[in-house]
Amino acid sequence: MTTVDVKAENQRNYLKLMVALEASQGILNLLIAVCDDRNLREILIRQYEKELTEQEFLTYRIRVRNQDPSLRYALAQLVEAEPDLQQEKPAVITVLGVDELLSVKLDAPKSEQERFFGYLQWTREALRQFRFPIVLWLTESILVRLAERAPDFWSWRGGVFWFTRESTPQERANISVSRTESTSEPKETRGLPLEEILRLIEQIEAQGKESPILATLYDSLAQAYQQRYDSPQERQLAIEAYEKAIALQTQLGLKADLADSLKKLGDLYFELQNEVKRADECYQQALEIYREIGDRLGEANTLRAIGDVLQFLDRRDEALQRYEQALAFYREIGDRLGEANVLQEFGKLQDDPAQGLEYLQQAQNLYVQIGDIYSQCRNLLYFIADVQLNMGQPDAAVDSLHRAAELATAINYEPFLKYAQDKIAKINSVSLSSVNRS
Q1: CA 190 to mean position of chain CA atoms
Q2: What is the radius of gyration, based on Cα positions, of the chain?
Q3: Which end of the chain, N or C, is more open, meaning fewer C-beta atoms within 10 Å of its C-beta?
Q4: Which of 278, 326, 324 is nearest to 302 (CA)?
């Protein structure tokens, strides 16, 4: 997964989490946030606490105690100490500390983690008294163990929201040195190692279980194969893993997970380009489910994906209709990255270059606002500069390419920098030839 993809996916999952929090007031909703990066986790928590506070929600943090790692006990202690919670005022509780529980037994009969999972499994019903959304922050390895050891609690989850560490500019530079001929951003790896996922799948299947965690593991397996992408065989293994996840999600009635897996399988088929029809079939199925469950962000992302398919098939008017629908959703839910990406597609599809440039500039302004340097650079290189050249504005195009080169240098991304320099040299060469002929 590229860095820009990671940022976009983190943003989408954050918006999904916010929608779930805002819609869960007055009811118990167990939301699981998965993040292995403590710094990113803290940033996300501060962000949603700030936004919720501005909407007059109360926000609290609690930590699971090592001595008595009971979620129910920690919540009860908080409610007892907070009169506002006793009056059931709108509130969100963030639960931390699970990753700090020991997984080894030491002198006790059970490890701290085992006791925590046991409490979750056997005190699940007692959680009904807490009528507010709870965000339980876990690492991915603990999530897998929780699903195995506390399946009843797991079945109550209101959603799982994944957040992946975004690489630093220096890390991107280290990767790009060996990939200077590539025009796409280096891939990020995320989640459990492939071998560990395969081991867990084998372990659960040996028990004869068809559980939600098995569907989740097959989805993770597909993404692990996608991240490697060293051969066509691994693409096929990714497709087969998604198909197994989809079959289980269908059987178990996991509609939200099913829609997400269908969307990701559609993305994989679309990348192959000779499988565009299959991609569209997956997107149409995902769209129907997203609409059924009221997932507006999922609906927006899928409408945009369908628009991409239609654009590839040169059905421009139909593509624009889907993009317009997606744009309305992105603006409604405040997804500025999604909005920018759709505006960029609008710019690419305009017959009038001046109108196209206007859309591309709107997209650029949004990329600047959200600090997405990669997308700013790509938009300048591949779209804005080309339109300016088509409009007979070589000086403006060169200015755009110089700006793109500065941005590429800022993120240490050599492929973009080289592309910008080569294009500037080509434009200058054409201009010089024109002067000599005159």
Answers
A1: 11
A2: 24
A3: C
A4: 326
> pLDDT 10s per residue in the chain (438 long)?
455 567 777 888 888 888 888 878 888 888 999 988 888 899 999 999 999 998 889 999 998 887 778 888 889 999 999 999 998 899 999 999 888 887 655 455 677 888 888 888 877 778 888 889 999 999 887 887 788 778 888 878 888 888 887 654 444 334 333 333 333 444 444 556 788 788 878 877 887 777 777 888 898 889 888 877 667 888 899 999 999 999 999 998 888 889 999 999 999 999 877 789 999 999 999 999 999 988 888 899 999 999 999 999 999 999 999 999 999 999 988 888 889 999 999 999 999 999 999 999 999 999 999 888 899 999 999 999 999 999 999 999 999 999 999 999 988 888 899 999 999 999 988 765 554 555
> What domains are there in the chain, each with its CATH number?
1-164 (3.40.50)
Residue type, 166: E
Q: List, in order, residues 6 or more apart from 348 with CB less than 8 Å away.
A: 311, 356, 360, 383
Instruction: Kindly give, in sequence order, each residue whose CB lies less than 8 Å from that of residue 180, ignoring residues fewer than 6 positions away.
Output: 414, 415, 418
Cβ-based neighbours of 421, under 8 Å, separated by 6 or more: 405
Smallest CA-to-CA distance from 280 within 266, 291, 292 is with 266
Contact 330, 321 (CB under 8 A): no
Report how far Cα 296 is from the mean position of its chain's Cα atoms.
15
For residue 262, what are its two tokens? 């269908």
Look up the pTM and report it.
0.67
CA dihedral sign, ordered 219, 264, 288, 282: negative
